[in-house]
Design goal:
Mean pLDDT: 84
Radius of gyration: 32 Å
Largest sheet: 10 strands, mixed
CATH topology of the largest domain: Heat Shock Protein 90
Number of strands: 29
Length: 806
């Protein structure tokens, strides 16, 4: 290596340092290209090296994350990994050895003294101090900001950067148990969202305490990544990085300073080692272009539900009047600190289930919604996400909140207020491959996914707390303003009596959905569970049970502990099931308001007539002795399945309520909505009818009585009786339209609307009624006045002409 006093070496060092500083301060692709052109690099193809040393790298990089936030999170995850690796190497431990921590949580606990590796177990001030290790800076344009991710992690020597930051498919972290980024591909996902030329800057230096005795151990290295358009017969673009003579540019300096801006209350930190990644003109979607302490902060928190380490957010664009710095610690920390204010009593509620031998745990969060408000408090934490699937605290895929509006779930009234987090930490490596795409931003279409969805459908639809909350929300929404169904019944009876074909749709055997379910639910007493149970006991009649050999058996327990006892962050409970001396994970668990239900699968190899002896043990770190419950199961012969996954129960009712016998027509009570309540139902002046599924094949009908086209017709008359007639025609016409569409709901019910782009039935009713609203009253009027001679005696050509003129 040349001497520090070598003039050529000093000149090169100074030139490289100046260039790196200029690139760090650049706020546009145009500036970057200008600096590199002046340095003689931009147009010199020999100074650029194929990213990952693969000319066809577009096929890999282009197949990464489909959403900008998911790609950005991978950069933050890599910084978290780098800080954990730094601590491991500082202790002289080989990261992939048996002496290394076996999980992310254990690494955070061991290296930073955070109990159970959970950021909820330290104060906000302690999290802010710890966040000095990792930062995210927004600068430049408000429309397309530059995003800079920096960390004080292990850093890389310049000679190693082609094998780390600038590589593809190398197994750098594949066998390290306490990191998240193992595929060596996700970090390149940001390139496709970085401006027109996909320009990124990478700067790094190895931590001196772990750098070793290498020639470049004390050097900073930097490179620029860019996308080159297809040329010379290439069908695809190619990503290259700056490496004159195939080597990374270097310079020697004690500290590298991040640019300082006129915006902000404090200077950005200087780095003695670590890494800096700058993404120029990053293409965030419209909703995330605001101050990053708002929408982007919420989105990153959603994607890092259990962040291993906190991240400091710095807004350096001109957003005056707002806070410009904050610490991001993940969704679970936010929910834990805000749950009394924003969550419904009793939530979160935990669950556990097993599909195809893969165990899953999770939590249900039900957010408050003030009566009369259009939006729930969930909007502070999520957008349209309904179910998050996480691994090691990072979201790897999601299902939209339309899931809760499925007929098999029946939680339409709560759809925008629910968030379910399914933790997949316990599943096998093969299970992760089946469930998640390699890009770690979406789920695959697989039998495992479908089995998971079926389990969650059952958990949500039968959850007693959610069912009670749904009915309460429903009553608040309709506000006791439902109309009497008697006039509607009489009118429809007249119509059906005159039309045998129409009547056939609504008579015995037609399987018409009951459009309204009127079931009063008594107010539940508030359940106040204890932080730790004083008892967890099996109900007496479940100590000895029978189970058919092809079924599962259920055990019920009584307790006095809080609902999230098994899933919470601090001192969670642990439930263990043992059958004939063998521990099993093939069970599902649910705890709500003092009642725990556990459904357990029989072990393989059992035979009819066997008696199985088992135990269920509950324990946590604070209990002196665990709660141990013993039971026995007598195995019976096979039982035939009903063919539809269960037994259909006959409809309840005493003949005096709104539920009618199966051979009668079940009519809706219509909630007539006026303009002052449009926001509650998402109405505007063109809206007509909205139906909301309430469970048990029942729907609520909400009718916009201030529809602009109805108002227009009402203005034509000054007579009250005619006004009432027009409103009745509008109501009956829209209800019939809604019933007709719901009649064929099965066409939509068994199709995954999200994956197959099939419109949910409720949305179909809303859009169809909106389209029909301008015509329904004129059509009823015109058709009612139409006589036989008006059609029969008129030549076909004249009829066509009249229709065109009309």
């Amino acid at each position: 290596m040349p001497s520090n006093n070598d003039p050529d070496q000093l000149s090169m060092n100074n030139n490289n340092e100046i260039l790196c500083s200029a690139l760090l301060a650049a706020e546009s692709e145009e500036e970057v290209i200008g600096f590199l052109t002046d340095a003689g690099y931009w147009n010199d193809t020999s100074s650029w090296r194929d990213f990952g040393d693969r000319e066809n790298n577009y096929s890999i990089i282009g197949a990464q994350q489909a959403k900008q936030a998911y790609a950005l999170v991978e950069k933050i995850v890599n910084s978290v990994d780098a800080v954990l690796m730094r601590e491991c190497l500082r202790q002289g431990v080989i990261p992939d050895s048996k002496n290394a921590p076996s999980s992310i949580a254990k690494a955070v606990d061991q290296y930073f003294g955070i109990t159970d590796g959970n950021l909820a177990n330290i104060t906000a001030l302690e999290r802010s101090d710890l966040a000095a290790n990792i930062g995210l800076i927004a600068s430049g344009k408000k429309t397309q900001p530059n995003l800079t991710v920096f960390d004080l992690g292990e850093g890389q020597r310049p000679s190693q950067m082609p094998h780390t930051f600038l590589s593809l498919t190398e197994s750098n972290k594949l066998r390290i148990p306490f990191v998240q980024g193992k595929f060596n591909m996700g970090g390149s996902g940001v390139l496709r969202f970085s401006g027109n030329r996909s320009i990124n800057l990478v700067v790094s230096k190895r931590d001196p305490r772990i750098s070793g005795d290498f020639d470049d151990a004390d050097l900073w290295g930097f490179s620029v990544i860019r996308r080159e358009d297809p040329t010379k017969g290439r069908k695809n673009s190619v990503y290259t990085y700056l490496a004159p003579n195939r080597e990374i540019l270097t310079f020697r300096k004690d500290k590298v300073s991040l640019p300082n801006y006129s915006v902000g209350t404090q200077d950005l930190p200087s780095l003695e080692w670590g890494s800096i990644i700058k993404l120029y003109e990053y293409e965030l979607p419209g909703g995330l272009k605001t101050n990053i302490l708002f929408d982007l902060y919420n989105e990153i928190s959603l994607l890092l539900t259990r962040a291993a380490l906190p991240v400091r957010f710095y807004e350096r664009r001109n957003y005056s009047g707002h806070s410009l710095e904050t610490t991001m610690a993940g969704l679970h920390v936010r929910l834990e600190e805000d749950k009394r204010e924003n969550l419904e009593p009793g939530f979160p509620s935990g669950f556990q289930f097993n599909v195809m031998g893969e165990p899953f745990t999770g939590q249900i969060f039900a957010f408050k919604k003030d009566p009369g408000e259009k939006k729930s408090r969930a909007e502070k934490y999520k957008h349209s996400e309904g179910i998050l699937f996480t691994s090691n605290g990072q979201t790897h895929g999601d299902i939209s909140q339309s899931f809760f509006a499925r007929n098999r779930v029946g939680m339409s009234y709560l759809a925008d207020s629910l968030l379910v987090i399914v933790e997949c930490d316990g599943i096998s490596g093969r299970g992760r491959e089946i469930l998640f795409m390699n890009s770690r931003d979406r789920l695959s279409d697989s039998e495992l996914r479908r089995g998971i969805e079926k389990e969650i459908e059952g958990i949500i639809s039968s959850h007693p707390g959610l069912r009670a909350l749904r009915e309460r929300r429903r009553r608040e929404m309709v506000d006791s303003k439902l109309g009497d169904s008697k006039p509607l019944r009489e009118v429809l009876n007249q119509i059906l009596s005159k039309s045998p074909a129409l009547a056939a749709l609504f008579t015995r055997g037609a399987d018409l959905p009951n459009p309204f379910k009127s079931r009063l639910v008594g107010e539940e007493e508030t359940y106040e569970g204890l932080a730790h149970p004083t008892f967890f006991r099996l109900v007496p009649n479940h100590k000895s049970k029978t189970c058919h050999i092809n079924m599962r058996f259920r055990l019920d327990f009584e307790t006095d502990v809080v609902n999230d006892y098994f899933e919470r962050d601090r001192y969670p409970g642990e439930l263990t099931v043992v059958l004939d001396g063998k521990k099993t994970d093939d069970f599902s668990r649910h705890l709500w308001n003092g009642l725990a239900h556990i459904t357990i699968a029989l072990l393989e190899g059992v035979r009819i007539g066997d008696t199985i002896r088992g135990t269920v043990t509950v324990n946590d770190e604070t209990l002196i002795d665990p709660f141990r419950n013993e039971f026995e199961i007598h195995v019976l012969g096979e039982i035939e399945s009903s063919g539809n996954g269960g037994t259909r129960r006959p409809p309840r009712g005493n003949g005096k309520g709104d539920r009618l016998a199966p051979d009668d027509i079940s009519l809706p009570k219509v909630n007539k909505v006026r303009e002052d309540r449009w926001d509650e139902f998402g109405f505007d002046r063109f809206s007509a009818l909205k139906v909301i599924y309430t469970g048990d094949k029942a729907y609520d009908f909400h009718l916009n009585m201030d529809n602009v086209f109805l108002r227009t017709e009402l203005k034509k008359t000054n007579r009250d009786d005619l006004s009432r007639l027009l409103e009745a025609r509008f109501e009956y016409g829209m209800v019939l339209l809604g019933l007709a569409l719901l009649k064929d709901r099965e066409v939509f019910e068994d199709v995954d609307s999200e994956e197959n782009q099939v419109m949910p039935i409720e949305q179909l009713v809303e859009l169809t009624s909106r389209s029909v609203a301008p015509f329904i009253l004129p059509m009823i009027e015109a058709l009612g006045a139409l006589e036989l001679e008006d059609v029969v005696e008129q030549p076909e050509s004249d009829l066509e002409l009249d229709l065109v003129e009309t």
